[in-house]
Write a structure and sequence with these properties.
Blueprint (H helix, E strand, L loop, with lengths): L17 E7 L3 H12 L4 E5 L6 H4 L9 E2 L3 H6 L9 H6 L2 H10 L4 E2 L5 E4 L4 H14 L3 E4 L5 E5 L2 E6 L4 E9 L14 H8 L4 E7 L3 E3 L11 E9 L8 E8 L3 E3 L1 H10 L9 E6 L6 H14 L5 H5 L5 H11 L12 H12 L1 E7 L8 E6 L17 E3 L13 H15 L1
Parallel strand pairs: 1-2, 1-9, 2-6, 9-18
Antiparallel strand pairs: 3-5, 4-5, 7-8, 8-9, 10-17, 11-14, 11-16, 12-13, 12-15, 13-14, 15-16
Length: 424
Amino acid sequence: MTKRANLEDAETVLGDREFDTIVIGGGASGLVAAIVSAREGRSVLIVEKLPRLGVKLLATGGGRCNLSNTLDVESFISSFGKDGRFMQYTIEEFGYRELVEFFSSIGVETHIPDGFRIFPTDHKATTVVKALLAEISKLDIAVECSYRVEHIITDQNSAIGVESKKQRYYAKSIILSTGGRGYSKLGGGTDGYTLASELGHRIVETYPAMMPLKVEESWIANCRADTIGGAEIVVNIKKYKRLRAKGDLIFTKNGIRGPVVLDFSREITPLFNKMDSVPILINMTKGMNEEQILSHLKRYNEKSPTQNIITLLQTLLPYSIAIELCKLSNIDTDTGLTKQKGSSRAKLISLLAWTPLTITGHDGFEMAMVTRGGVHLGEIDPHTMQSKIIPNLYLCGELLNIDGPCGGYNLQWAFSSGYLAGRV
């Protein structure tokens, strides 16, 4: 007789059984794939190497779980760059409207507080995970936690089962949804890539993405209290000038973070294979160039000619940053714009247009929310998520070579690809 695994803390053996579907990995894509497959009337087993399901999902969006966003299909897939076209059918079949309906069906109501990002109404990832686990229990889906897949079993080049050090299970279809390399304590690692590679899949080199970056300059530590909206970052190397991003920026004790940095980090981390540091330029003045900045400052100075330069600069930047840029320019902060040395004023205007920083590193996959790279998309059927190399093997979620920016993009892709894999 099979003992049902406890969903919260499973440590059981189900015995020799054959299922219709085995899902490897209990994250966002795997949980949805399992539920969809079970709703189709199939017997399903989820195997997860951690003691619990949904651990990484609990941490998404800082625990608030930004499920998706309201972009139309074309705009959504274009946000993923050239690889986004791969997901067109997936998002057309299971876009944000279908996602909202799916979560409503398991008791998770959602809302769109800023008109763009979709959250559970209580902004709690725990609500999402509890609802998914409840649906798994309701559908009588078998769960085997603390189960690390060593090999995917094949017969006549078709996937037929999974094997760990303690147990084998067999199935008509295998769904590989192990996620990426980020946050190893939350289940991230290379297991999925190894399993896919053993079966002949190519792995596009992986890099940490969506993470803070460290910088050389020490002055940024004095600017931690402020967020700069609409900042633009560009790599200050001629060959890589096309690499740029725009969004909110936050300074930290030894680096930079915020949505613009999280989005831009995917472009930066591969460069460390070629160089020890990466020079960047940051525009913190809403895209104004030197001429526009000088015109702006003169206009405000005319309204109050006796104001000092710091007061004037606060029409563009927070106080803490204004102070630091003045120091870098040898500006006399007690006097006004017109009384500054010409060379100092020119230096300040230049820094306001483009502030240079030097990226010296990052914390690697331990702090990466997303992985850049993964299983080659050309080896996956975009209409089913089935491997083109191994029949009956389906791959979905972050394991594939596709990653997007902040704002619910990556979770939507995980849920959508999991839906497609579980449906077949």
